[in-house]
Amino acid sequence: MSKRKSQPRWAARVLAEIRRLVALGRVRFTLKATQELAALELGLDEQDALQILSELRVADLRGRVESERTPEWLYVCKPEVGGINLYVKLIVRSECVVISFQEDEGDADEEA
User: Fold this and answer.
1) pLDDT tens for residues 55-106?
2) Does domain 26-103 match CATH 3.30.2310.40?
3) Which residues have a Cβ under 8 Å from the Cβ of 108 and sit 6 or more positions away?
4) Which of 12, 44, 73, 76 sits in a 20 to 30 Å window from 112, CA-based?
């Protein structure tokens, strides 16, 4: 049983699509996400990040926020890797666009 009372109906569908896009190699990292990934003390590279994305669980998906720039959702995930909580923000289109991949600072609340 997850920590959250109930997951939104869209959560399982979004995670399935993320996994599908990872399996197809249709994931792109923004420059910001690439820089954040490189700055992590975990020593992760993009292949490691793809593995993390492919293993996301519904409990890792913390919410979605509407983009201020485009009419689409930004999904926020907070997986734990090597004892460190990560903050991953992405868009699901015909590809998965990773916008942010950093250590979770713990003070940014996302809307569900």
Assistant:
1) 999 999 999 999 898 899 999 999 999 889 999 999 999 999 999 999 998 7
2) yes
3) 87
4) 44
Q: What is the pLDDT of residue 1?
A: 40
Cβ neighbourhood burial of 1 (10 Å; 0-12, 13-18, 19+): exposed
The closest alpha carbon to 45, from 81, 90, 95, belongs to: 81
Rg (CA), the chain: 13
Asked if 111 and 64 touch (Cβ cutoff 8 Å), the reply is yes
DSSP string, 3-72: SSS---THHHHHHHHHHHHHHTT-EEE-HHHHHHHHHSTT---HHHHHHHHHT--GGGEEEEEE-SSSSS
Q: How far apart are CA 61 and CA 63, in angstroms?
A: 6
- Token code pair at residue 14: 């979004």
Tell me which H or E stretch contains 97. strand 96-103
Amino acid at 73: W
